Amino acid sequence: MGQDEKKCCKTESKCCDSKKMLSMLVKVVLGLVFLVLGGLTIYKFWPDLLIIVKGCVGLFLLLAGVITLAIAKE
Question: Residue 42: pLDDT band by 50, 70, 90 thresholds?
Answer without folding.
Answer: very high
